[in-house]
Amino acid sequence: MKLLLTIFVFAFFVFPAIAQENTDQATVRCYYLFSQKKNKSDQEYFFRDTLTLDIGSQMSRYYDERKLQRDSTFRSAFFKLDPNRITSLTVIRNVDSDWSDRLGSAGDIHRNNTYDGISEQIFKNRNTGNIIMINTAGDIGFDWYKGIDELSTFNWVIEPDTAEIFNYSCQKASLRFRGRNYEAWFAPQIPINDGPWKFFGLPGLILKIKDTDNQFDFECIGIEYLNTPYPITIPENKYFECNWKDYNKVISRKGSGQFISINGGTVLLANTSSGPTFQLMELE
After folding, report:
1. E strands present in the chain
2. If both were cysteines, with which of 28, 168, 239, 257 could 146 make a disulfide (CB 3.0 to 4.6 Å apart)?
């Protein structure tokens, strides 16, 4: 108990508010439904989430908007909590990963499940091929990692097949990338060299892409042309910087999740016993 309380006190003084570094202005915003096959208790199912791609003239940012908002709200409440006013600190170990969903919300002021959503942000410079991946690790997500990747080009093969995706006539392209084979559909009518995750390099916006083993699927479900440009910002922070291979190793070791609840001076921590396992997109 004393050790955990010390961790809380340490966090208040070590982790300041996160500043932002402006890199570009987004004029187009795309929404993708991301599906990823996961395993839990020897059963396969698909985890689904909506992710956002903000596209500027040179840079883009790919992120889970709802996850970042939840984390930001919780982090603000966490830093404002006076450790001298903590009246009780309860730790529950090895709970089921769905435990927090079954807990009643009455009386809870701030709750955060570190497993809920995707905490990764991906920033692409399409002109240089430089890619920055930002993510958190550790039980309460205060260790920040920055992965650096360089992709001057993808070896796309444009196919003759066509299909209609999100009301746009799209053309097919195939790709083998770091151990997986992908099929993509891009829209020549939208002359934007970008797409979800790290993907770019086609003469049109990628509206749908999936791997041939049906582990990962990205499909556009909305496009917004912004009347007021939106800043693309990279959080300025103290990062552990590494290459993309080491970054993937760190992220793959992330815990199954931790639930944190703050209600006045009452703090509850719960570690999940086992959560869904997932595959890395990059295998080699």
Report:
1. 19-40, 43-55, 59-63, 88-95, 110-113, 121-125, 130-137, 143-150, 157-165, 168-177, 180-187, 205-211, 216-236, 240-243, 258-263, 266-272, 277-278
2. 239
State which residues form the domain around 147.
18-85+118-256
Secondary structure of residue 16 in the 3-state scheme: coil
CATH number of the domain at 174, please: 2.50.20
Q: Is the pTM of this model over 0.85?
A: no
| Structure-token pair, residue 243 | 């290459």
Q: Contact, 130 vs 24, CB < 8 A?
A: no
Tokens found for residue 52: 């956002």
As a whole number of angstroms, the distance between CA 79 and CA 77 comes to 6
Answer whether residue 208 shows pLDDT above 90.
Answer: yes
Report whether 260 contacts 75 (CB < 8 A).
no
Residue type, 284: E
66: number of Cβ within 10 Å? 15
- The verdict on residue 3 lying in a domain is no
When divided into structural domains, the chain yields a total of 1
Percent of the chain with pLDDT over 90: 45
Cβ of 238: how many Cβ atoms within 10 Å? 10
Residues 37-87: tens digit of each pLDDT = 876 556 666 778 899 999 999 999 999 887 766 666 666 656 666 777 778
Q: Which two tokens stand for residue 137?
A: 């690790």
CB 88 within 8 A of CB 266: yes
